[in-house]
Amino acid sequence: MNHNQTSHALDGIRVLDLSRVLAGPWCTQTLGDLGADVIKVERPGSGDDTRGWGPPFLSDRAGEDTAQAAYYLGANRNKRSIACDIATPGGQALIKQLAAQSQVFVENFKVGDLARYGLDYASLREVNPALVYCSVTGFGQTGPYAERAGYDYAIQGMGGLMSVTGERDDLPGGGPQKVGVAVTDLFTGMYATVAILAAIRHAERTGVGQYIDMALLDTQVAMLANLGATYLVHGQAHGSTPGRAGNAHINIVPYQVFKALADDSGHIQHLIVAVGNDGQFSRFSQVLGHPEWAQDPRFQTNAARVRHREILVPAIAQVMALQPKSHWLAALEAAKVPCGPINSLAEVFSDPQVNARQMVDTWQHPLADDVRLVASPMKLSETPVLHGAPPPMLGEHTEQILADVLGMEPSAVLALKAQGIVA
User: Fold this and answer.
1) pTM for this model (two decimals)
2) What residues does CATH 3.30.1540.10 cover in the chain?
3) Which CATH class is domain 255-342?
4) Which entry of 185, 264, 351, 361 is annotated as an active-site residue?
């Protein structure tokens, strides 16, 4: 991959990526952003499942839909694609040769699947003892659920996230709610990235690779964070458990969404108020015209406000409904009270801060010009993220990879294509 003259953090690291869908590709995209040469191994003819997860699909230069789904494009930049049939002995031999020339191997097949092809860790360690091998599965390599397939939606439910997401059961619209993006997949991808970077450092120091066992369920349990700690420290002993709080916070008040006065067109407006300490609450009370709230023993401290939220929150809501969102945002920001709008995606991508932070990249794709995609949020002063290659077409780099990495002659590549081993 052409890195031009800029130095990148993972220059010289090659990642062999046999993962599909989101958790694994999110990990390898991050490694690619950091400069690694990511070789995406895909099934000839179909490739990564998400290529077909649309509409919407990328429009070509004639305005017609292509076979490149937006979903796929969002998780596969800075990679090269080789189409290789790993179900064939020839394909398995190729993957072993590539693994011998790689530092990292990432896969998200079901437990035991790759052992059938001789592509498990034990087999690849024989050809590359320093290889960092990362498996991403729903439930990990051990335990009673190891053989099950795991999907983000199901894991959000099993791992407790949906028990604390959504409106309270006793209110209209109450009940379990998934998060709007596949956060368990994304977090697993990021944890996998961290683990891989740590393992690379170990391998560079010792020459010894290792196996990384990443599970969506493990990650989701870890993601419970303060709520998991709340249950283990307090709830388990007292027979209570954190529940759904809608757009409120179980430990902080006021820390939730409030309805403001409708705008001129009659649209209902909402904003977030996130008062995190007693000083902020004092300033918040002044902005609302009720400075006496900050002196009321029921509301003086956060603990008191949490205990009396059923009194305080309706009083706040009554005042907030008297002015439009723009009024409150300006007044609260001036008073240094944490707050914010609830933006649509159109508003997100037109936001001056988002644009100032260059959170949209433009790519020149083989099928379309100026393809806009969300950029990496990592901003490194000495080794900036790579803006190398757009999400690849299926098998776009097959010949290039076999020539660059394995030194194959064009005639040898043609022979592999004739046998259906690569495409």
Assistant:
1) 0.92
2) 255-342
3) alpha beta
4) 185
